Amino acid sequence: MEEISTDDAPASIGPYSQAIVHGDTVYVSGQGPANPESREVEVDDIQEQTAQTLENIAAILDAAGTSLENVIKANVYVTDMDNYEAVNEVYGEYMSEPFPARCAVEVSDLPIDIGVEIEVIAAQ
Fold first, then answer.
1. CA 115: distance to chain centroid?
2. Is 112 exposed, middle or buried (0-12, 13-18, 19+ CB in 10 A)?
3. Contact indicator for 101, 72 with CB cutoff of 8 Å
4. CA-CA distance, 3 to 11, in Å (whole number)?
5. What phi, psi does 95 have (nearest 5°)?
6. Interatomic CA distance for residues 54 and 78, integer angstroms
7. N or C: which end of the chain has fewer CB atoms below 10 A?
8. Is 93 in a helix, a strand, or coil?
9. Distance CA 33, CA 80 (A)
10. How is 25-78 classified by DSSP, letter by letter?
11. Residue pair 113/33 in contact by the 8 Å Cβ criterion
12. What is the DSSP letter of 9?
C-alpha cells in the first residue's frame, strides 16, 4: 500500500489518509468542500460545495497519477436530500461517461458543518 498526500487538497482531519493506492486502485477518503489552503469551508451554496469537493478529489487523484475520468465507484453523502438534484447537476459536470457506479444517501450529520461529502475509488 502507498499513501497519497497532496497540499492541493485539504489535509485529513483525523487518523486517515487522503488516499491509499493498492495495486492499480486508488481509494480516496471522503472529501468535503474545504479550501486546501485555508482548510476552511468558504462557500455555503451546495453547488459550490460540490464543485470544491470534486476539485479536492481531482487534486488527490492527480497526486496518485490518475483523474476523475478513471473513477469506478463514488459514494455521495448529503445532509439534505432536497439538495440531491443540485449536487447531481454539478457531479454530472465533473464526471464523464461511462459514469461511475454510485450511491447517494442522506446522512444526519458530517464531521464538519458541510452539506456534501464524496468518496471515490479509481483505477490508476
1. 12
2. middle
3. yes
4. 13
5. -95, 150
6. 14
7. N
8. helix
9. 16
10. EEEEEEE-SB-TTT-SB---SHHHHHHHHHHHHHHHHHHTT--GGGEEEEEEEE
11. no
12. S
Whole-number Å distance between alpha carbons of 94 and 55: 9
How long is the chain? Answer: 124
Residue type, 118: I
* Tens digit of each residue's pLDDT, the chain (124 residues): 999 999 999 998 889 999 999 999 999 999 999 999 998 999 999 999 999 999 999 999 999 999 999 999 999 999 999 999 999 999 999 999 999 999 999 999 998 899 999 999 999 9
Amino acid at 112: I
Contact between residue 106 and residue 81 where contact means Cβ atoms under 8 Å apart: yes
Cell representation of residue 38: 485555508
Torsion of CA 101, 67, 1, 56, to 10 degrees: -90
The pLDDT score that the predictor gives to residue 13 is 84
Q: What's the confidence (pLDDT) of residue 109?
A: 92
Q: Which of 55, 4, 52 is nearest to 25 (CA)?
A: 4
Q: How far is CA 110 from CA 31, 96, 106, 114, 124, in A?
A: 11, 27, 10, 7, 28
